[in-house]
Specification:
Layout (H helix, E strand, L loop, with lengths): L7 E5 L5 H8 L3 E7 L2 H10 L5 E3 L7 H8 L8 E5 L21 H11 L3 E6 L9 H12 L3 E9 L10 E9 L18 H4 L3
Length: about 200
């Protein structure tokens, strides 16, 4: 597969392509999406017909097959974006510490360690860092730092980042340790957008 010169991104746990749209609008080149659910995969393919989507269980995807398919070298990928399954962490769910989906973050860690992207971004619900889930949060943070990345995390509300919706999210940012920069979050806006400001009708 020929890779263009735009900033490249791969999205394991891509879902229905919400973040992929953001990357596209920002001029990035989405190389590959992977998701186990067929409906999000169909949605992704409908909206991004030129981007390959693998309807696969991420645990069955080998790093080497990704590198070969995309004709990438280890360390060449710019961004790995992962929206981890959140059902076990969400305050709207059972918040079962033993939920097997809670350990799927290890697949993202495996991709980071294997692909060695310049930057990674991981998004999840803030329930991951609260109460009985705090131990899992600490485990995830430890595993991410052990891959050789400078890692920072922050709980942000999208309403302060030009999105007309109040949506609290936990974000992990990582920058490979050999790169001369630090993971940095954008400054929030004091003035928020309202839905009536972006919908003409």
């Amino acid at each position: 597969m020929e890779i263009n010169k735009k900033t490249s991104v791969i999205s394991p746990f891509c879902g229905v392509c919400g973040s992929s749209l953001d990357y596209q609008l920002s001029g990035f080149h989405e190389l590959l999406g992977i998701d186990i659910d067929s409906i999000p995969c169909q949605t992704f393919q409908h909206n991004f017909s030129l981007t390959p989507i693998w309807h696969r269980d991420l645990t069955t995807v080998e790093i080497e097959e990704v590198l070969q398919y995309l004709d990438l070298e280890v360390g060449q990928l710019d961004v790995l974006d992962s929206s981890l399954p959140r059902q076990g962490f969400s305050i709207c769910g059972s918040r079962d510490v033993q939920d097997q989906r809670n350990d799927l973050f290890l697949e993202t860690v495996r991709f980071i360690a294997g692909l060695r992207p310049k930057v990674f971004l991981i998004e999840n619900v803030t329930g991951l860092m609260k109460d009985k889930m705090r131990g899992k949060f600490n485990q995830i943070l430890f595993q991410l730092k052990s891959t050789g990345y400078k890692v920072k995390w922050k709980s942000i509300n999208t309403i302060y980042y030009n999105v007309p919706q109040s949506r609290q999210r936990l974000i992990f940012l990582g920058v490979r340790e050999d790169l001369p920069t630090e993971p940095t979050f954008p400054q929030p806006n004091s003035k928020v957008k309202r839905l009536k400001n972006v919908l003409s009708h």
